[in-house]
Amino acid sequence: MAIIFSISIALLTYFLLIHYVIEPELEQSHRELTVLDFYEQPHDRDIFIIGSSHVNEGIDAYLIEDFLQKRHINRSVYVLGINTETPLSKLPELDNLIASRPELVVIGLSYRDLRNRTNIYDDRFALISQRISSGGEYHYLFNDSQLKLLYQSPVENVFYNRKFIISSLNDQFSRIVRKGKDLNREEIFATNFKDPWIHETNLTDTEKIKMANDNTDLDTISEDLNPQKRALLYTVHLLQQNNISVIIVNMPISPYYSNNINESTRHNFFNFLNITGVPWFDFEREYSPDFFTDKEHMNVAGRTDFSPKLAAIIADYVKKGA
Questions:
Q1: pTM of model > 0.70
Q2: Which of 24, 96, 118, 301 could cross-link to 39 by cystine, CB 3.0-4.6 Å?
Q3: Strand-by-strand arrangement of the 104-109 sheet
Q4: Residues 178-206 as b or e (16 or more Cβ within 10 Å = b)
């Protein structure tokens, strides 16, 4: 009886810790979850921009809104990228996005997003597992371990969340220590879908070149219809099926990176963009290395120049559909 009582007390304590301390912390500190909260609000006529860190660091929503206002287009613009996002990892939250009814979704891509890879950050799927619909249409694109994470039972999820105990308590302690001071960049990024993410790295030209050379082989794209391509086609189809317009943008990357992309990969990449059947725009070689912090992420000067150019495309598209 003593053993049973002790185990019961331990489980109850664990459950209370997870439910009342860890889960609320996760809800406000992980962008995977705050994006889902954002989708729960209606966003009729709004414009969503999705993608990976290319989008988060390369686009300033405020600059786009200012440009649209000058064109007498009253729209709210939100940058909803998640670092390391790919078309495949985006699929589970697609129904949530559609439910918020945006007018236009801009998908920012680069070569790494369409290469043949299926690895996904495990915690991402575990975090959203209790907040998404079944989505059986795309199950075949995921392996068994990914599906197991994605469709955890509530009990399984409670025990999985033990992984976040230390980090969540550290975050809470940090906020207590900094009480009254400005939020750090990570906290702003998790809940603010206007401000761009700021990459702390600022490499020298030599370091940028070395980074680009070290990763070139990883970004080879064949003509095969790999899981990332299939996921993007499914995304485009489902958005259009729900009367949501789609634009694809090949995001700017540093010439150090772009010059190492072989022509076969470039041909296969652009050929696939044609297959999607939606308007796409190419900014890959638009900027010099001075506009990037590393081989592919834009700095302040880069996004300040690029955002109005993207805004002009959005403005033209919105006016044509008006």
A1: yes
A2: 96
A3: 77-79, 47-50, 104-109, 245-250, 280-282
A4: eeeeeeeeebebbbbbeebbebeeebeee
